[in-house]
Amino acid sequence: MKYKCIIFDCDGVLVDTESISVRVLIELAKPLGLELEYENAVDVFTGLSLLKCFEYIEDRVEVPLPEDIEPQFRKRTFELFQKELKAIDGIHEVVSSLEIPFCVASSGPQNKIAMNLKLTDLYSYFEGNIFSCFDLGKWKPDPAVFLHAAKTMGFKPNECVVIEDSVHGVKAGIAGGFDVLGYANPKSETVLKNAGAKLFYSMSELKTLL
């Protein structure tokens, strides 16, 4: 194998949280006077930190965001995760077959990452190797979380590969000196490729690439 360590993003690569999160952002924006179409919202919000998502909404409404908008978001998404969250198709087969060290580096807070991995029966693979942008106070496309993950795991960036599905994550990986494999679909393939990722479209393809 070319690499000595694999760094997975979480949302959209390990677990399918993004459709739920986008739906909740649309729900929160509507009473503030901002109507968002789902497909457009997916394009806008995928890969953004939650703060940047709120800034996007705030820039387009004429009223201040509620002071408790983040707790509202966390409560509603956590409720839906408990009912609806699924692992990305094929990811169990990938991680269960790996014979080199791997970890997860995500923009979400530690408790959210852990909860979502537990809900999808992935936590045992990543326990002890979970890295969060919240721990560093720096978010993608800043490469800090990937650099921290690689260093903590004991490897240099050129010994690792990052698995991402968002343009911000791809840019973060490239900026940090990592090879990046981009989990793409027809809507995202152009921006991920332009950001510097080598594309794949299914987890069975990822097994072959690794």
Write up what this structure looks like.
With 210 residues, this protein is α/β, with parallel strands linked by helices. The chain has 12 helices and 6 strands. It has helices spanning 18-29, 38-45, 50-58, 69-84, 91-97, 110-119, 123-126, 133-136, 144-153, 167-175, 189-195, 203-209, and strands at 5-8, 102-106, 130-132, 160-164, 179-183, 198-200. The chain has a 6-stranded parallel sheet with strand order 3-2-1-4-5-6, sandwiched between helices. β4, α10 and β5 form a beta-alpha-beta unit. α1 crosses α2, α1 (18-29) packs across α4 and α5 runs parallel beside α12. The radius of gyration is 17 Å and the shape is globular. The N and C termini lie close together (7 Å).
Kindly report how far apart the N and C termini lie: 7 Å
Helix percentage range? 40-55%
Q: What is the succession of H and E elements?
A: EHHHHHEHHEHHEHEHEH
Strand content: 5-15%
Instruction: Profile the largest sheet.
Output: 6 strands, parallel
What's the count of strands?
6
Short description:
With 210 residues, the protein is of the alpha/beta class.
Protein traits:
alpha/beta; 210 residues; six-stranded parallel sheet
List the topology elements.
Blueprint: E1 5-8, H1 18-29, H2 38-45, H3 50-58, H4 69-84, H5 91-97, E2 102-106, H6 110-119, H7 123-126, E3 130-132, H8 133-136, H9 144-153, E4 160-164, H10 167-175, E5 179-183, H11 189-195, E6 198-200, H12 203-209
Parallel strand pairs: 1-2, 1-4, 2-3, 4-5, 5-6
